[in-house]
UniProtKB/TrEMBL annotation:
GO molecular function: ATP binding; hydrolase activity; nucleic acid binding; RNA helicase activity
UniProt cross-references to SMART domains, sorted A to Z: DEXDc, HELICc
Species for this entry: Trametes cubensis
Stretches the record annotates as Disordered: 35-96, 567-590
Compositionally biased intervals (Basic and acidic residues): 64-86
Reaction catalysed by this enzyme: ATP + H2O = ADP + phosphate + H(+)
Enzyme category, top tier: hydrolase
Any Pfam family the entry gives: DEAD
Domain Helicase C-terminal intervals: 485-683
Descriptive protein name: RNA helicase
Keywords: ATP-binding, Helicase, Hydrolase, Nucleotide-binding
Lineage, opening ranks: Eukaryota, Fungi, Dikarya, Basidiomycota, Agaricomycotina
EC number: 3.6.4.13
Length: 683
């Protein structure tokens, strides 16, 4: 069965909202099957309690507990206009302290940005202010080098960019420290015959920095391979070169997440030149300076047929070969690039149905050079219903690299509940594989046990917990109009902001409201608009999603330097120059200043509320001023809840999740159950 046809079978059991999401992203995102007749939750919505590998060759590493010094917004102002403070009693980390000299003779003549930090030219400088009173012949309190992103050493340029992004005193989070220890290498992993490929799982709570945890090792390895002139397979005349020949691939479940991740990777490459391409950017003119409210209007206009929107997200790399090191995209987009547009429609039909006439496009991408594959949100992309596209890509890459692996399109994952554990059938891919997720459902654990028994599991102690800085509140419906209750609670957010702020220009908080159904999103959006609360109501079917950029999330997503206006030369230095069909990194979003209200009146015009479904619950890094998440419909399961709630309280920032429910009468028992379950997730 083809990918699309299997998706359709699965989609039949999905609510309309999710079905539309599947069709628009081409990758079905979230399958919420109702519990079976036994009443037990399906294995993909049940979290595993134990990550221990059953196979003795597998490893489990859990990071020690760790308190963050301060959030990355340190130095910025909060809603009261006060500057966020770092933890004063903690001495700031001095990067020099963690650098031990290492031997990297090859890098001697390189520009500073490409030298490994802590190389021989930089002696560690240890300055202890208490040196006159204490014997410091032995190090005082040795702080782990990993915390300073110094073990193994990062390329100077990567370290500089990292500090530009996170602040000069940034410390690695537990999952990052583990990832650096186990995945990062100071030598290219791909060096000649010594190439050995590994598999890892990164499992840690939402907002704990998993993107950096995998991007740093991947980017460093790509750069080192380039610096050491490791030959590429496509240099071999017998291997077919295509328009795009990436060396690493990041798979993400939505176009929105792909765009944000590729922007982030570009930012980390500000000083170290590598080329990043996002497969989910359209050939649309820059929509810089278009605010989220304008985009929201566009949805309405589009519904009236007044605004012509591009009909689909499509990247046209045309035929010119162009250097790409890292490609980020959804599995369906990647398959389309690798196999040719419309590749799966050929398999449609059968004896009883007529065959659809489809033109199959030429493949645009060669997979032969791919040394790294990251599967972000792996529990979705390897979900029993939708793993087919993901595994198909992994199998295609293996074949292109000359080491085919077995691939059954109609594959049945062994039941996670089976009494007798099936014998593992390990798959050894000819590339490094990193799976990441904030939630490890039993289905993913079973998948790993079956195919990757010796994979190294790297986990944070907070896994399957809410971020520690995220408060929870349970709001009881009054029994009247629910939309009015939501409006009331929203106004309380801003009232409290105004009461507590210390400067008149402190911006008001933004709120993300999660509903379960498209119709609910639209109705609530219309109600709030009528009440003078500008909002962006976004569903998988919204036409703005087809524009090929993340402008529809402007003002809500975290703004990165790569997203802001930067001169063209700057952009060129961080990423490949835009191909036909690819947007320039500088045009990725609008400046946030114009999107922040400081008074209640401005809330009529500047959206401070985004209403959506689970579509936006995965992976997206929302701005620190998204301080509240409202969960107005009963969460479908706790995995969904963790991801929705986790859009706030990220990276040590303050946040609150407000869960709406009934306090009395019919349905109140369900609310009590939810309350208990949410309580159990608290850090
Ligand atoms: N070491 C660090 N110190 C401070 N902030 C950090 C650090 N690492 C990452 N961050 C910031 O934390 C935020 C969340 O990171 P990221 O999106 O990678 O989290 P995540 O674990 O992938 O979350 P999710 O599970 O929701 O996808 C980002 O804004 C990132 O810049």
């Amino acid at each position: 069965m083809s990918l699309l046809s299997s998706s359709r079978v699965a989609a039949r059991s999905l609510p309309q909202e999710l079905l539309v999401a599947c069709l628009h992203t081409s990758v079905p995102l979230f399958a919420y099957r109702s519990a079976g007749s036994s009443g037990a939750a399906p294995s993909h919505s049940r979290l595993v309690k134990d990550l221990k590998p059953s196979d003795p060759s597998g490893k489990l590493k859990v990071a020690p507990k760790f308190e963050r010094d301060h959030a990355p917004h340190y130095g910025k102002r909060d809603t009261r206009g006060e500057e966020y403070q770092s933890n004063k009693h903690k001495r700031p980390v001095r990067r020099e302290e963690f650098r031990k000299p290492i031997k990297v003779s090859e890098t001697k003549d390189l520009p500073q940005a490409l030298k490994l930090s802590g190389g021989p030219s930089r002696k560690p400088k240890f300055v202890n202010p208490l040196s006159e009173d204490f014997d410091i012949s032995k190090p005082a309190v040795p702080t782990p080098r990993e915390r300073a992103f110094a073990s193994p050493p990062l390329l100077e340029g990567l370290l500089e960019s990292l500090h530009d992004v996170l602040g000069p005193d940034a410390e690695a989070t537990p999952i990052q420290a583990l990832a650096l220890e186990h995945i990062l290498s100071a030598e290219p992993r791909t060096a000649g015959e010594r190439a050995q490929y590994h598999q890892w799982l990164l499992a840690s709570e939402t907002g704990s920095g998993k993107s950096i945890a995998y991007l740093l090792p991947v980017l460093q390895d790509l750069k080192l391979a380039e610096m050491h002139n490791i030959p590429r397979r496509i240099d071999d005349p017998s291997v077919q070169r295509r328009a795009i020949n990436p060396r690493a691939l990041v798979l993400a479940p939505t176009h929105e997440l792909s765009r944000q991740l590729s922007g982030f990777a570009k930012e980390l490459l500000h000083n170290v030149k590598l080329r990043v391409l996002c497969a989910s950017q359209a050939n649309t003119p820059s929509r810089k300076r278009v605010s989220a409210s304008k985009m929201a209007e566009a949805v309405v206009d589009a519904a009236d047929g007044e605004v012509e929107l591009s009909s689909e997200i499509i990247m046209r790399p045309e035929a010119q070969p162009r250097p790409v090191d890292l490609l980020v995209g959804t599995p369906s987009k990647v398959l389309e690039l690798a196999r040719g547009r419309g590749w799966d429609y050929e398999q449609e039909g059968g004896d009883s149905k007529p065959r659809r006439k489809i033109t199959v496009g030429e493949p645009q991408m060669s997979l032969a050079d791919i040394e790294w594959v990251v599967v972000d949100e792996a529990d979705i992309l390897l979900d029993p219903d939708f793993q087919e596209a993901t595994r198909m890509i992994l199998a295609d890459i293996s074949a292109a690299r000359g080491h085919p692996v077995p691939f059954e399109p109609e594959f049945k994952l062994p039941s996670a509940d089976a009494k007798r554990k099936p014998t593992p059938t390990p798959i050894h891919y000819p590339f490094n594989l990193v799976l990441t997720s904030a939630t490890i459902p039993s289905a993913l654990a079973a998948y790993i046990a079956q195919f990757h028994p010796s994979l190294t599991r790297l986990a944070s102690p907070q896994l399957h917990k809410l971020p520690p800085t995220l408060k929870t509140e349970h709001f009881a419906w009054t029994g009247g109009n629910r939309d009015a209750d939501i409006e009331h609670r929203l106004r309380r957010v801003w009232y409290e902001d105004l009461q507590n702020r210390t400067s008149a220009d402190a911006p008001l908080s933004k709120v993300l409201v999660f509903c379960n159904k498209t119709a609910r999103v639209e109705n609530l959006g219309a109600y709030l608009k009528e009440k003078g609360i500008a909002n962006v109501a976004l569903t998988s079917a919204s036409n703005v999603r087809k524009l090929g950029s993340n402008h529809h999330l402007d003002g809500f997503l975290r703004v990165r330097r790569a997203d802001e206006d930067v001169p063209a030369t700057d952009v060129d230095s961080t990423s490949a120059s835009p191909a036909p069909g690819e947007e320039n990194a500088s045009s990725a979003t609008v400046a946030p200043a114009a999107t922040a209200a400081t008074s209640m009146e401005q809330l009529k015009d500047i959206p401070h509320v985004m209403i959506t479904t689970s579509l936006l619950s995965r992976g997206l890094d929302f701005a620190p001023d998204v301080k509240h998440v409202f969960i107005v419909d009963e969460p479908r399961n706790m995995i969904d809840f963790l991801h929705r709630a986790g859009r706030s309280g990220r990276a040590g920032e303050a946040g609150k999740v407000v869960v709406f429910g009934k306090s009395k009468g019919r349905g109140s028992e369900k609310t009590r159950v939810v309350k208990r379950k949410v309580g159990a997730l608290k850090a």
